[in-house]
Amino acid sequence: MIHSSATAKYRCFLYNQGLMPYLDAHQWQRSLLQERINNPSLDDVLILLEHPPVYTLGKGANSEFIKFDIDKSEYDVHRVERGGEVTYHCPGQLVGYPILNLQRYRQDLHWYLRQLEEVLIRVLANYGLSGDRIPGFTGVWLEGYKVAAIGIKVSRWVTMHGFALNVCPDLKGFERIIPCGIADKAVGSLADWIPGIKCQEVRFCVAHCFSEVFGVELVESQFEKSAYS
């Protein structure tokens, strides 16, 4: 299936993956990013997937926002190069990793963050839900509950990392951290408003809204591990 904006200027490869270990996806992103730094003419990429349970911290994240001993943790914990504080990924959460050359769009990180929020706000609107931004914070909220987190890394104007939308995850994993370092705002998921909703159906909506917001033609592609291993 090809998702195409009516005003598409660029092609973007869409990889619809299933459950992928965090470090595998991280290595894949880094490989794609480096290829595009070396050759800026390469097409952009959008990866949509889910992760097994894992905690990640941004490069400057405060470990005080973790409520367990990292050194004795039964949970996978990784500190990575994205911005932002600690977050949690697990099945039922749809994660999007856009590898975009912002020189094609706008060389403005604040603009890019707002565009990612706009994608997710449009996804919620598709389900009759009104997503909100909160000034001073990055992400999307629904009736006061944070349903989407965003954290990015940009090198030579090529992006990696991205967004995580809580579709139908087990939210208990968030109880072991202060998500994104925000203590006074609870985390929610779309399943709280739409019982029975699954990531599989939301993927298509996310892809469509992404193509609209960024004005790209999404071309579905197949993942080959040999390409980066």
From TrEMBL:
Record InterPro entries: aa-tRNA-synth_II/BPL/LPL, BPL_LPL_catalytic, Octanoyltransferase, Octanoyltransferase_CS
Pfam families linked: LplA-B_cat
This enzyme's EC code(s): 2.3.1.181
Catalysed reaction, written as an equation: octanoyl-[ACP] + L-lysyl-[protein] = N(6)-octanoyl-L-lysyl-[protein] + holo-[ACP] + H(+)
Annotated Gene3D superfamilies: Bira Bifunctional Protein, Domain 2 (3.30.930.10)
Subcellular compartments: Cytoplasm
One cellular-component annotation, GO: cytoplasm
Designated name of the protein: Octanoyltransferase
Natural source organism: Anabaena cylindrica (strain ATCC 27899 / PCC 7122)
Gene behind the chain: lipB
